[in-house]
């Protein structure tokens, strides 16, 4: 993504946080970024396209940083602590954007709602994978409860950071929260607690649809790692979003997904992902 487009996104998020999404005009976003209204439309088709692109941009930013930590082969607890630290530093850097998310109730169509839901799903599976790495499969019955409690701790600190503006030692918070998670797990085991939330309460988080979203997000990460030309990488990220939007519909159109996957079938690096996508969605890949 080029610097002018990023500048527009950051200007828009700042204004949304100050004035609200619906009270901010395209002219104001362009003015804040120091460009003309015409220049805005060179990068975005509409205000709706702008917010979708912005959501995607920030999501890619944090996902790439988390992936970099995961590649460092740290001990599971150290890795999760460092990943949480990355998230906290992201929060400090993009407080304007997150303030808007917390204070606004933006629903501008199914594509945005679907994307936000996919981010929630990915967050669930991000925490589940880390928890599994730490405690092992023998704690699987407790995964939902552990995730809910850890998310609660993280969200509590996030709101205090964003809304109340408190300064926390971001270098220590990750390890601190992992220790609190250990305390919670130890307490559940000590008191022989029965799981309060099981996978039966949240079946949608364990079904094939989620496997599709996880696969797509891993493809997004691979796009970043391949160091493709900016235009090509941007096109592939857009296609991922189109597939996400389509698979999130109540009645997804398989021919549309088949056509979109062709762009990845032409790249040997995505051969296995395309085959897996076809298997999960029960579709034949086009030649």
TrEMBL record:
Pfam families named among the record's database cross-references: TetR_N (PF00440)
Gene source species: Lentibacillus halodurans
GO molecular function: DNA binding
Keyword Zinc in annotation: no
Domain HTH tetR-type: 2-62
Protein name (database record): Transcriptional regulator, TetR family
SUPFAM superfamilies for this protein: Homeodomain-like (SSF46689)
Key word Amino-acid biosynthesis present: no
Keywords: DNA-binding, Repressor
DNA-binding region: 25-44
Family annotation (PROSITE patterns): HTH_TETR_1, HTH_TETR_2
């Amino acid at each position: 993504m080029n610097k002018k487009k990023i500048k527009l996104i950051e200007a828009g998020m700042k204004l949304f946080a100050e004035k609200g999404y619906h009270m901010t005009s395209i002219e104001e976003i362009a003015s804040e970024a120091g460009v003309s209204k015409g220049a805005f439309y060179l990068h975005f088709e509409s205000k709706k396209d702008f917010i979708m692109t912005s959501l995607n941009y920030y999501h890619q930013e944090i996902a790439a940083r988390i992936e970099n930590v995961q590649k460092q082969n740290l001990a599971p607890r150290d890795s999760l602590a460092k990943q949480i630290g990355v998230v906290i530093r992201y929060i400090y850097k993009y407080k304007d954007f997150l303030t808007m998310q917390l204070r606004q109730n933006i629903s501008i169509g199914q594509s945005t709602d679907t994307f936000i839901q996919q981010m929630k799903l990915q967050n669930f599976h991000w925490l589940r994978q880390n928890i599994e790495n730490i405690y092992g499969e023998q704690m699987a019955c407790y995964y939902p409860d552990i995730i809910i409690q850890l998310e609660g701790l993280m969200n509590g600190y996030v709101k205090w950071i964003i809304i109340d503006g408190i300064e926390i030692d971001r270098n220590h918070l990750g390890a601190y929260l992992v220790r609190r998670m250990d305390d919670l797990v130890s307490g559940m085991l000590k008191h022989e607690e029965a799981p309060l939330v099981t996978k039966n309460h949240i079946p949608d988080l364990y079904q094939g649809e989620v496997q599709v979203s996880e696969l797509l997000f891993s493809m997004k990460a691979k796009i970043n790692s391949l160091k493709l030309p900016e235009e090509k990488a941007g096109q592939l990220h857009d296609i991922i979003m189109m597939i996400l939007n389509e698979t999130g519909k109540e009645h997804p159109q398989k021919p549309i997904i088949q056509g979109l996957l062709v762009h990845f079938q032409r790249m040997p690096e995505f051969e296995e992902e395309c085959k897996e996508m076809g298997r999960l969605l029960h579709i034949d890949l086009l030649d």
